[in-house]
Amino acid sequence: MRPESVREKDDPLAIVLKAAKLGELNRPLTWPTMALVINGRSLARPVTGVERYARMMIAIAAKEWPDCKIAVPSSMKTSTKAFGCEVIRIPGNGGHAWEQVLLPKALSKNDVLLSPANTGPLRVRRQAVVVHDLAVIHHPEWFDRRFAMWYRFLLPRLVHRVDRVISVSQTSLTDIQRTLGVPLEKSSVVHPYSMIEPGVVTNAGIGSPYYLIVGSLDPRKGIDSAMAWYASLDRPAFKLVQVGRTSTSFASNVVPPVPGVIRLDEVNDEHLSALYHGALALIQLSQFEGFGLPILEAMQHGCPVVASDLQVFRELFGDAPIFVDPTDHARMNEATQELSQPAQREERVGAGRIRATHFSEARMTEELHVVLDPLLGC
Question: In 3-state terms, what secondary structure has residue 246?
Fold first, then answer.
């Protein structure tokens, strides 16, 4: 006998039996639908590797989950029409306060947030955040002091707060797991691909043979090492073209002018494609990277690569690049001499093209589904 104090309306069994009598159990059960919202703060920034990756991820998410929404600051002038999904404009200028305070307030309890560009709101647990690398943790001296202080506060807390952590290579993800203690089961790699397709314009307008550097004036990019090598040459028969702008996020990295060096602050994708197509090689002498997207872009264009010998480059690109010590000018000269031999150059070009096929939109799409489907209840 049940105690009389237990009323029928409080008894789960009684509720189920009553529902069965009324035929209500024949109705399909419905559960709250999780909705994908993308943190579009990065769309308002100039395009570097981080922003290019974010655009790839947003484009894929918009295609795979067409009901998703992109949350952007109301001050943003960048068009989002290309993504083809609903845009939520949240008042604000897109700074850290916008991301940490205003963005969370605009979300509903059933929203899953995708933050594709290194930061996200601490208040939102149901979130997948992309962290490209931990350069700011290991080498704060490379960054603006206030920038480094904020990121060194935010990242260790954010990766433990959110449901999923994404990085761009296994090397970078392993570093995040070991350094910040992120569990294996909540972390994944989503590899980028090259959005810079080989174009019909192949003349970059340089007018003479050249080696190419693609990267912001960031101390870790090794641009000063490339400049020092070039300056050490006696009447070189080629120029050095550096594509990339300065940023307030980084510590001052003033590289003095070097005769024969052409600097291009910003180029569009068509011009960058032509630069890759016409270069003798890409020179990438980074000290620290999460991926190294210019290497992939160069390989897709049939441009050989001379790169610093980093573990992440070995993981992603195998033996396709010529690996060097950025401070060893003699080794740099050997690399350029090797590329001047047609047979050896073609061997490097072929290896690079093969390696580039490992990274595709289809692969990125599949890896993103692995991360988001469980969060969205798919």
Answer: coil
Residue 349 phi/psi, 5-degree rounding, is: -60, -45
Query: Could you tell me the sign of the dihedral formed by the alpha carbons of 137, 253, 270, 78, in that order?
Result: positive
| β-sheet with 187-189: strand ranges across | 86-90, 69-73, 35-39, 111-115, 127-130, 164-167, 187-189
CB 180 within 8 A of CB 134: yes
SS3 assignment, position 112:
strand
Quick check: helix, strand or coil at residue 225?
helix
Instruction: State whether 329 and 291 are in the same domain.
Output: yes
The verdict on 126 and 217 lying in the same domain is no
pTM of the model: 0.87
Q: What share of the chain is helix, strand, coil (3-state, %, to 5)?
A: 45, 15, 40
Distances (CA, A) of 325 to 168, 285, 302, 333, 336: 24, 8, 23, 11, 14
Q: Are 212 and 241 in contact (CB under 8 A)?
A: yes
Taking a C-beta distance cutoff of 8 angstroms, is the pair 290, 168 a contact? yes
- 232 domain residue, yes or no: yes
289-327 pLDDT per residue, tens: 999 999 999 999 999 999 999 999 999 999 999 999 999
